[in-house]
Specification:
By secondary structure, this protein is an alpha/beta fold. Helices cover 37% and strands 16% of the residues. It has a seven-stranded mixed β-sheet with strand order 6-14-13-12-9-7-8. A four-stranded mixed β-sheet has the order 3-4-5-17. A four-stranded antiparallel β-sheet has the order 15-16-19-18, covered by helices on one side. A hairpin with a 2-residue loop joins strand 1 and strand 2. The chain is globular, with a radius of gyration of 21 Å. The protein binds 4'-deoxy-4'-aminopyridoxal-5'-phosphate.
Length: 418
């Protein structure tokens, strides 16, 4: 339906809309790794809701649990009241997630977005330490609200704030300077009383920078960062909003490094089904919130609590999903390496099922994604200049679907680059 030659999306929806421009069709239904548009055309999804659909679209196990819950008139909106759905989720987090990993965390239910979890984490770190400064990293992405934006790198996104984004100092992320010891400046600045750097409340880090270009921090760098923080009484916040819930293999992305962050943010796939939900996890001694000090109307999305619990029970009772993710990721990395060899300057990077093809020439990536879309594959760019094509399929994708997607991507790269 068009209004004066425009679709209702163009006529009514704000100019702020984004993904609909990359993928100019009208989607209607979806299952597993596939979306269908209103004309019945199928698209293989190598984007997975920006990491919110690790278990695929309309996952049948989660869908059945959700249908049963709704049919039984289970609480849908619960503020932060105690509910049966929340109790069962907390018990499952304790028994399936924290227990096996010997993690001792309190659980906060913030508003249901990644940005709100980050806001809560920053507020808590400042409150507990009484310090204002936060250290973040180059190319970081933590969300669009003012606090989350203040620790985000992108100048274009920061400019949207319209006010100074203060009390934050960026540090070089692993690989940024190309030096063997990328933490040298940070260590020096923290330890030199004349460096001009105020002692921070916390450091906030992504183990793999998803929006920043799939920059993968080395395990050793993460360990050193954790040691550096703990030796100086600085809280370590790992933002696992995109890389958590198994994206890189283990449930928490930081497990690979064997570190224990003081505060962890989760959102996107924690709700399992793509329903909005977020968590902030922190060491019990940090639980210095006054009741209601960080509140919000939609902290109790109980339908998401149900699908979150079933996802944990079904996918995280053993190591099968983690192992399959690592195997599938390695397979994609191998294929991408062959593809990269055909494009001058192209590189492959990633961990688990977040893999990327980085191009020397950033003008190519948008064209590759467009050519992929034309062939029925949803894949997006990331990075400071959009120089990276990021592959993030559902973790539940089959090998045959991976092969199909890689064939489509290869055809797209050939069409654009050769
Ligand atoms: N942190 C990270 C690491 C993210 O990738 C994102 C979203 N891309 C966010 C925070 C913000 O999450 P949301 O969009 O749900 O606010």
């Amino acid at each position: 339906m068009t209004v004066a030659g425009m679709t209702v999306f163009e006529a009514l929806e704000s100019n702020v809309r984004g993904y609909c421009r990359s993928w100019p069709t009208v989607f209607d239904t979806a299952s597993g790794a596939w979306l269908r548009d209103e004309h019945g055309r199928e698209y293989l999804d190598f984007f997975a809701g920006a990491g919110a659909l690790n278990y695929g679209h309309n996952n049948p196990i989660l869908k059945q649990a959700l249908l049963d819950y709704i049919t039984g008139d289970g609480i849908t909106h619960g503020l932060d009241m105690s509910t049966v759905a929340k109790r069962r989720l907390l018990e499952t987090l304790r028994d399936r997630v924290f227990g096996p990993r010997c993690l001792d965390y309190k659980v906060q239910f913030p508003g249901p977005t990644g940005a709100n979890a980050v806001e809560a984490a920053l507020k808590l770190a400042r409150k507990v330490t009484g310090r204002q400064q936060i250290l973040n990293f180059t190319n970081a992405f933590h969300g669009m609200s003012l606090g989350a934006l203040s620790v985000t790198g992108s100048a274009a996104k920061r400019a949207g704030a319209g006010v100074p984004l203060a009390h934050v100092t960026p540090m070089p992320y692993d690989g940024y300077l190309g030096e063997p010891d990328e933490l040298r400046w940070m260590r020096r600045a923290l330890d030199d009383p004349s460096s001009g750097l105020d002692k921070p409340a916390a450091v906030i880090v992504e183990t793999v920078q998803g929006e920043g270009g799939v920059n993968v921090a080395r395990v050793d760098w993460l360990r050193q960062l954790a040691e550096l923080c703990s030796a100086r009484g600085i809280l370590l916040i790992v933002d696992d909003v995109q890389m958590g819930c198994g994206r890189t293999g283990p449930f928490f992305s930081f497990e690979t490094a064997g570190i224990r962050p003081d505060i962890v943010t989760l959102s996107k796939s924690i709700g399992g089904y793509g329903l909005p939900m977020a968590l902030v996890l922190f060491a019990p001694e940090l639980d210095q919130w006054a009741p209601g000090e960080h509140n919000g109307t939609f902290r109790g999305n109980n339908a998401a609590f149900v699908t979150a619990r079933i996802a944990l029970e079904h996918y995280w009772s053993d190591a099968a999903l983690e192992q399959a993710t690592l195997v599938k990721g390695a397979r994609i990395a191998r294929e991408l390496t062959e593809l990269a060899a055909t494009v001058p300057g192209a590189q492959v990077r990633g961990r688990g099922l977040v893999q990327a093809l980085a191009f020397d020439d950033p003008s190519l990536t948008g064209k590759v994604c467009q050519a992929a879309f034309d062939r029925g594959l949803l894949v997006e760019t990331s990075g400071a200049t959009g120089q990276v094509v990021k592959l993030m399929p559902p973790l539940t994708i089959t090998d045959a679907e991976i092969d199909h997607g890689l064939e489509l991507l290869t055809a797209a790269v050939r069409a654009v680059c050769h």
